[in-house]
Amino acid sequence: QVQLVESGGGLVQPGGSLRLSCAASGRSLGNGVIGWFRQAAGKDREFVGSIRWSGGGSFYTNGVKGRFSLSKDYAKNTVHLQMESLKPEDTALYYCAVGFGLIAGRMSREDAYDYWGQGTQVTVSS
């Protein structure tokens, strides 16, 4: 079992920045992949980005490339999602999730992830 807790959401003006965190506890993340998804009101949940806990790079959906970046803090068992140049369309409930044994082609799929956090709200508005 893995427990995930997201934090760092809030209200920010367009063009601003936020850093979300996903703290993991329980089972070792080992060969896990940490993914971030978001769900805007009235829309389906969508993939944002993912990163392998042990080695490997990060992967982002086109709409956030160059603005969002993922990093890992091994000492705190935490993954951060740094979001820059935020836009109103980035407003959503942001979730982190963990999946094990994922191949690259499945990292953007919700059903590839085994454990999910409760989400943190990000609102981009003036």
Record keyword descriptors for this entry.
globular, mainly beta, 126 residues, single chain, 7-stranded mixed sheet, 11 strands, 0% helix, 4-stranded antiparallel sheet
How would you explain this protein's 3D organization?
With 126 residues, this protein is an all-beta fold. Helix content is 0%, strand content 51%. It has no helices and eleven strands. It has strands at residues 2-7, 10-12, 18-26, 32-39, 46-52, 58-60, 68-73, 78-83, 92-100, 115-116, 120-124. The strands form two sheets. Strands 2, 4, 5, 6, 9, 10 and 11 form a seven-stranded mixed beta sheet that branches. Strands 1-3-8-7 form a four-stranded antiparallel beta sheet, with no helix packed on it. The chain starts with a strand and ends with a strand.
Secondary-structure topology with pairs:
Layout: E1 2-7, E2 10-12, E3 18-26, E4 32-39, E5 46-52, E6 58-60, E7 68-73, E8 78-83, E9 92-100, E10 115-116, E11 120-124
Parallel strand pairs: 2-11
Antiparallel strand pairs: 1-3, 3-8, 4-5, 4-9, 5-6, 7-8, 9-10, 9-11
